[in-house]
Amino acid sequence: MASTAEIQSGLAEILEEVAGVAPADATPEKSFTEDLDVDSLSMVEIATAVEDKFGVAIPDDELGGIKTVGDAISFIEKNQ
Amino acid sequence: MSSTIQLPAGSPGAQILGVGEYRPRRRVTNDELSQTMDTNDEWIRTRVGIRERRWAEADETVVEMSVAAGGKALAASGLSPEDVDLVVVASCSLPTQIPGAGPEVAYRLGIPRPGGFDVNAGCAGFCYALAAASDAIRAGSARHALVVGVEKLTDVVDMSDRSTAVIFADGAGAMVLGPSDEPGIGPVVWGSDGDQRDAIAIPAEGQPDAGNLTMAGQAVYRWATTKLTDTLQQAMDRAGVTAADIDVFAPHQANLRIIELMAKRLGLPGSTVIARDVAQAGNTSSASVPLAISALLESGEAKSGDLALLLGYGAGLTFAGQVVRLP
Questions:
Q1: This prediction's pTM
Q2: Which residues are recorded as modified (O-(pantetheine 4'-phosphoryl)serine) (chain A) (predicted)?
């Protein structure tokens, strides 16, 4: 089980790798599309990278509900 | 009375002898599309990598485009129409269910009474048809085959739907195959995931979006970027080659981001030429692989004798990949 801090830093690494988001910008209140300029296809890449890293499943219908970095962190916490 | 069924000797291998293409006259840029729908060049280029596409006009039918591409492939092969005894047309946008296009395309090209049929395997159609024709030659069921991939997707796309109208387009590509001692077409690795049949579909009458091509973009993107690298690796393994041997990588031209991700995950060497015809052609489904190969041969980026890794994938969902030697 990864801690909240571990999830946040792991997610920041994925965001940097997939979408070139600076790790310092990947804070919980940020919206992926509005604030971080992550498009719908990059969201899919982030989801599959999160699945590999944290061993969770993020189906496409759940992915639509994940709007912010904080949403992603709580989804991983609940489902890991 | 039981007699033994006799089989023909067949051929040790099959090879590609000629490639041909037809691109519709009308070139449609992203800027032109942005005048009639809420989209823009930057959005289209960053999401799918398309700069322009071709839209067929009324006289550029599925059969006409097939005849044009097939005739060029035949001329490039150096064969006469009389030499061809199998014609396979891969398409999912024929305007009528009956009859299929294969017999008419053959007739129009002067190919006398060949085996003629169509293949509908979505955007994987050309690679399925190539495998079927190659195996027919190896088994001795045919000697020379014409394989066409053709689409007029603008007939089945809602041209006011910006999620599909900017992506799908029209065109035809063709290859002529013949027997060979040294195999020029590797074993196919094909399969399907029918549980995702709704991911790309033209819904039937009475359903939402009836008659229009629909695509669950995120689901298809996820499937293509996670499930198909193994297929490509298996196609190389079964042909006895490695990523270092691949001169040309020509996957289905659906989305530049998928193409780049696949190339990266396969570990192709920097010297491998990667087909990026999607930028000029849009997504032409069954036509995209032969169109991409034709463009690379025409520009000189790909050369005769090069080993090319092909992959088709699409509605079904279906996929098929093989290694081939270019003519």
A1: 0.94
A2: 40
